[in-house]
């Protein structure tokens, strides 16, 4: 399996499992990632996802040059020939955490960008070297990166193919936290468990408001926020959350 998909309580674990190829993404991995993400999206028992890479060298080194790039060229006029993923085409309102345990280059960085939170190893290197191969980032890199960090810093990575280390990525706001290599998954799990303490339907509505609202005007975003808030006000979890607060106890959320 190119993608190792496991369920641990409320948490889904996605491991890019091609260490012999530095976890480069081929078409098999894309298809399996699509299938795993759809299952995660549709499983009511799963509330948060963590994606990482096998081994300690690479989170994901990008597209497999021998396997995926020929497919991309052959289907260059059919942008939806590839399976949908959170990078493009698959709406996913459950939160995703990237546990970046090594190099995250090209498509690997684009996978991390499609996540909501990024925990990086001190040994991590990040970049988008596509232009050095005659390509551009094609899984959202040219769109997400300038929306997350200053335009000029995004231009360094995208237009120059520059590679940065974890500390610089933290300084410019590209990752949330930098930890020792042996603490990456531990930290990602801690953050995932913290999210699981919140009301899951509220978390999903909040993420949807953030993602969809980012491309709207402020007025449009406020209207979206209001409509999503109305939805969560009608949930059992809202009633449970407010009741637990008044009773000074831990809430028992059920995603209902």
Commentary on this structure:
The chain is α/β, with parallel strands linked by helices and 256 residues long. It has helices at residues 27-42, 68-74, 107-113, 141-148, 151-160, 166-171, 184-196, 200-213, 218-233, 236-246, and strands at residues 3-8, 11-16, 48-53, 58-60, 96-100, 103-105, 117-121, 125-127, 163-165, 177-179. Strands 1-2-3-5-7-10 form a 6-stranded mixed sheet, with helices on both faces. A 4-stranded mixed sheet has the order 4-6-8-9. The two termini are 34 Å apart. The mean pLDDT is 94.
Task: Name its key features.
256 residues, alpha/beta, 2-enoyl-CoA Hydratase, Chain A, domain 1, Lyase 2-enoyl-coa Hydratase, Chain  A, domain 2, 2 domains, four-stranded mixed β-sheet, 10 helices, 10 strands, 42% helix
Straight-line N-to-C gap: 34 Å
What is the number of E strands?
10
- The helix tally amounts to 10
Give me the Rg, rounded: 19 Å
User: Which series of helices and strands comes N to C?
Assistant: EEHEEHEEHEEHHEHEHHHH
**Which class best fits the helix and strand makeup?**
alpha/beta
Largest β-sheet summary: 6 strands, mixed
Q: How many individual domains? A: 2
Are there runs of 5+ residues with pLDDT below 50, and where? Answer: none
Query: What is the CATH superfamily classification of the largest domain?
Result: 2-enoyl-CoA Hydratase, Chain A, domain 1
User: CATH top level of the largest domain?
Assistant: Alpha Beta
What percent of the residues sit in helical stretches (DSSP H or I)?
A: 40-55%
The CATH architecture designation of the largest domain is Alpha-Beta Complex
Strand order of the largest sheet: 1-2-3-5-7-10
By CATH, the topology of the largest domain is 2-enoyl-CoA Hydratase, Chain A, domain 1
Q: Give the overall shape.
A: globular
Strand % is 15-25%
Which whole number gives the mean pLDDT? Answer: 94
